[in-house]
Amino acid sequence: MALLEFDEKLAEQMEVVYRSRDILRRRRLVYEALDVSEGDRVLDAGCGPGFYAAELLERVGERGSVVGFDRSEQMLAVAAHRCGDAPNVTFERAEVTSLPVEDDSFDRALSVQVLEYVPEVDTAIAELRRALRPGGRVVIWDVDWRTLSWHSEDPERMRLVLAAWDEHLTHPSLPLTLAARMRAAGFEDVRMEAHAFASAELSGDAYGSALLPLMQDYVAGVERIGEETARAWVAEQHELQERGRFFFACTQFCFTGVRAA
Q1: Alpha helix (H) ranges present in the chain?
Q2: For 222-250, what is each residue's pLDDT tens digit?
Q3: Is the pTM of this model over 0.90?
């Protein structure tokens, strides 16, 4: 498995993705599930470029706070810049499997499309539980990449490209086991909601379309794919759009749970 390299270029690409219509919709769904109140202390495990942290500051108010952790220094720098000089937000480099926080210290915790990259996912879930106070609420959001449906008139090339993309993930279908893992870690009232992200247009505001540049860069670096095949794959998607034949769909899953007393 080759991981995505979270460098400056990827940070710029993620900025585009995070501003797309579908990701704005996803953030709204996450906030609804998280159910933050004014004064809450919120943990963002895998905070990325800091969109959640910045927007959650408005919800927790001056009496609340947000703490974001990420393994990428570049992402942390972007997140810190986004939140400016807000006194009630902090960012720190850390792994989600070893969070430098005290037990029972947060009211809410979220981890959005992070655990699919984590080998020790059960340890990460246990860490989120440890960080929450009794009665605290967690939101874990991940994609089941096996639900991906993407039209191509070269299905074999599409199959090869998507198989190569899966290699950057530790758990391409983590939602299949997430509810059971959360219950085993001690979360109660574990619930799941599925959300379809689909588009019949190659629009930068759609989830699949926004991912295209990131995916092209990644699969081009996979030896059996290469730059020429990656370019041809993307070119076909634009050609399909011109002919009114573009189609993309995948299912993303929102899991919530409450830490037992």
Answers
A1: 8-18, 21-34, 51-60, 73-83, 121-131, 155-166, 175-185, 207-220, 226-242
A2: 999 999 999 999 999 999 999 999 999 99
A3: yes
